């Protein structure tokens, strides 16, 4: 297969500082072994085929630092300059970007200028890989798309939807950490192949038959999470690798079936000619408007109210009994929850884990946070991100969001 000519622009300060707040051990591994994860990225999480790296640039503030994650080291600060030789040895061109103001260095503007200059090169770069969670990069992605270039974002945290939606592929922090550790990447992205492939069509027909049978035989509304869990076990992991047959999600795949009289809420599907809405059956009601308004802009997982506390308890149990590793934590918690009959995806658990870390209660903390601390930190992060995204919420709506997420009211 012909290799894709690719250019990688890495905002080291942005990526490393975000990763170290989630998993310090793997963040340091990312900075000390760039050659290893770069080699894996050559053939993993691709858009059109394996990459041939023509440009490798790492933008770093030579005086930048984060608080040292290891108290036993006796050092208060971990300086970015320590990692400079590792990137040089891995073939990166390291661009020094000293701080221009108290909070801002020149990395983002340098990356933009260099990427736009590359468009005018005599060599045509097929794919631009932008490793940064800074939504200031959005105009750059618009410019690259206008020039018909493929774009991949490596986001170390939960980036803004306006930023990630423009790219052809998003590599999440979970996937990045799996790359760093050399683990199989469990991607939820839609593969490059289209939905017209024979093997996808055959699976889709099986999916249609199973759903139609379940829907026709159901005595009442079907819980979407439980239905998705059952279908995964019957159809295999192909539904995830194809991102539900190229439709981008389970509910969209269900909607494509055009089931007669089908009605959907946030968490249920039912036959409107035979069933009452889920609220009348005693099931949990739909998410309040304040939660719905946060779902798309923040990427908030659409879990029912009753599913949030089990996630917090599972993560608290992991943190209390294991040396923390983010990829292991999400896998372990997912499997524990499945044993308890709670179907939650790894991506949803990873979202909670990241939010907890950025909310001030990282799972690697000693002593480990309990379930209530995890819930509080996660809700704090969700509301802080909503404020940063200019989503106006009243005090009553904030309390409503905390209640839905299973977090205690700080004013109580």
Automatic annotation (TrEMBL):
Q: Name one Pfam family in it.
A: NYN
Q: Which residues form the NYN domain?
A: 5-172
Which Gene3D superfamilies does this entry report, sorted A to Z? 5'-nuclease (3.40.50.1010)
InterPro entries for this protein: NYN
Name by which UniProt lists this protein: NYN domain-containing protein
């Amino acid at each position: 297969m012909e290799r894709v000519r690719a250019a990688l622009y890495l905002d080291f300060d942005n990526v490393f500082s975000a990763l170290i707040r989630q998993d310090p051990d793997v963040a340091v591994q990312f900075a000390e072994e760039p050659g290893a994860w770069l080699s894996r990225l050559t053939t993993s999480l691709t858009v059109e085929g394996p990459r041939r790296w023509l440009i490798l640039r790492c933008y770093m503030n030579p005086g930048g630092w984060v608080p040292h994650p290891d108290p036993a080291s006796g050092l208060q600060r971990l300086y970015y300059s320590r990692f400079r030789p590792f990137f040089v040895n891995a073939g990166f061109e390291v661009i020094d970007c000293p701080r221009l103001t108290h909070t801002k260095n020149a990395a983002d503007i340098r990356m933009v200028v260099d990427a736009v200059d590359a468009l005018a090169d005599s060599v045509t770069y097929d794919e631009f890989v932008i490793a940064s969670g800074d939504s200031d990069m959005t105009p750059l992605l618009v410019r690259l798309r206008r020039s018909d270039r493929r774009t991949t974002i490596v986001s170390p945290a939960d980036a803004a939807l306006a930023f990630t939606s423009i790219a052809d592929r998003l590599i999440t922090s979970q996937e990045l950490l799996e790359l760093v550790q050399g683990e199989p990447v469990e991607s939820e992205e839609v593969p490059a192949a289209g939905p017209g492939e024979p093997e996808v069509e055959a699976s889709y027909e099986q999916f249609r038959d199973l759903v139609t049978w379940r829907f026709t035989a159901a005595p009442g509304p079907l819980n979407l999470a439980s239905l998705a869990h059952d279908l995964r076990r019957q159809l295999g992991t192909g539904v995830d690798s194809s991102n539900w047959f190229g439709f981008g999600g389970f509910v969209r795949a269900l909607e494509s079936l055009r089931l007669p009289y089908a009605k959907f809420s946030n968490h249920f599907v039912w036959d409107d000619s035979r069933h009452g809405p889920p609220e009348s059956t005693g099931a949990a009601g739909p998410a309040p408007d304040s939660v719905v308004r946060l779902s798309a802009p923040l990427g908030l997982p659409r879990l029912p109210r009753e599913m949030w506390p089990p996630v917090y308890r599972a993560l608290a149990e992991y943190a209390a009994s294991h040396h923390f590793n983010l990829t292991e934590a999400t896998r372990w918690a997912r499997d524990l929850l499945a044993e308890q009959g709670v179907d939650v995806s790894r991506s949803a658990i990873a979202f909670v884990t990241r939010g907890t870390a950025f909310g001030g209660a990282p799972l690697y903390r000693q002593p480990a946070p309990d379930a209530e601390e995890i819930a509080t930190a996660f809700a704090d992060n969700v509301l802080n991100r909503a404020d940063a995204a200019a989503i106006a919420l009243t005090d009553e709506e904030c309390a409503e969001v905390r209640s839905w997420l299973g977090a205690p009211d700080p004013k109580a």
